[in-house]
Amino acid sequence: MHDAGLAWLHFLFAFVLVGALCAELFILRLPIDNRVARLLLRVDLLYGLSSVLLILAGIARVVWGAKGWDYYEAQPFFWAKIAAFAAIGLLSIIPTRTFMRWTKSFNADPNFTVPEAQLKSVRRYVMIEVHLLAVLLLFASFMARGIGS
Q: In terms of pTM, does the model score above 0.85?
């Protein structure tokens, strides 16, 4: 039951993360005003929080889970999964900073308009994150089956 509980937490936080990221992608299709910019910032906070909790749950699975560190250490797809997650995290900095900048701009000037090029750029970054998540899931599937070791 212990290992199942750790797996459940890991999956729970992963699904929250995916949901938040997909919500960002959807919200970025709306006209961006002050209210939408603040909503993006809140959803992005949920995304960031879920990523931290996902990392902690993953560490718990590696340390206290049934397979143990020896299994993961020798697994190339574990390291590929970690690299993909790190890439997603680094890419996510750009949208987060942009959402903060938009909120600040709307607070300073209610007539602020988000430049179309900036909006398209942020959408592209979030879409890249979603695609990298799909690759990460492929790596996780290979890792769980011991492929590559």
A: yes
Q: Which 3 state secondary structure label does DSSP give 20?
A: helix
- Provide the 8-state DSSP code for 41: H
Element (H or E) spanning 10, and its range? helix 2-27
Residue 73, amino acid: E
Q: Which residues, other chains included, contact 76 with Cβ-Cβ below 8 Å and sequence gap of 6+?
A: 148, 149
What is the mean pLDDT for each group of 10 consecutive residues in the chain (149 residues)? Answer: 91 97 97 96 98 96 91 94 97 98 96 96 98 96 89
- CB neighbourhood size of 70 (10 A): 8
Q: Give the CA diameter of the chain.
A: 57
CA 114/CA 141 separation, integer angstroms: 39
